[in-house]
Design a protein that fits this description.
By secondary structure, the chain is an all-beta fold. It is built from no helices and 13 strands. The relative contact order is 0.25.
Length: 189
């Protein structure tokens, strides 16, 4: 049962390092941090916006789900809770050899369970959401912005939250729907 909800300091849940290695090769490193307030976490996919040509170098436990002209969607081969900390490197190739910082360049859907000692809940809670990360992305030369070849983006939980909905079941609070900076949507049950 949800007893109270309040604003709290942001916490990095994961980080994404994007690096342009040259000759159209981009490296993305996803690091999910070990957090004592997270009991379990599952990264369900990674979607990269950009013009990708391949071949790509993926971790052995990931595979390509969909690839179009402007998107590559990757999925873990087995959808299980991650052992934390979690660290994976993805190398994607583009025919374009110029790049820019792109907002929402990488989307990371996730699901998990808060630990019982989390400051948000007195007993337990679930989280489902997605992180829309700014990252380096290939682009035509006229769109290149002169960015450095390395960029780190952080996904924080609960940075400037706004309660959109308080769900009641039988007159008792059962879930919150929040929007906040760093994620488009998060629902806590």
């Amino acid at each position: 049962m949800l007893l109270a909800a309040f604003g709290c300091n942001g916490r990095d849940l994961f980080r994404l390092d994007s690096t342009y290695l040259g000759d159209g090769l981009f490296e993305y490193r996803l690091r999910v941090l070990d957090d004592p307030f997270i009991a379990s976490l599952r990264v369900e996919a990674l979607s990269f916006r950009g013009v990708w040509s391949g071949p790509h170098e993926l971790p052995v436990d990931w595979t390509t789900n969909v690839q179009t002209g402007t998107l590559i969607d990757l999925r873990p081969i087995t959808l299980t809770n991650l052992g934390l900390p979690y660290d994976r490197v993805f190398r994607l190739r583009s025919a374009q050899t110029t790049f820019k910082q792109r907002v929402s360049s990488v989307v990371v859907p996730l699901a998990g369970q808060f630990a019982t000692n989390a400051p948000v809940f007195g007993s337990s809670g679930s989280l489902v959401g997605q992180g829309a990360m700014t990252a380096l992305a290939p682009c035509p030369p006229e769109q290149a912005d002169g960015s450095e070849t390395n960029l780190t983006s952080r996904f924080e939980l609960f940075r400037n939250p706004v309660i959109q909905e308080l769900g009641l079941i039988g007159g008792e609070p059962r879930f919150l729907t929040l929007t906040h900076q760093g994620a488009a949507y998060l629902r806590l049950e």
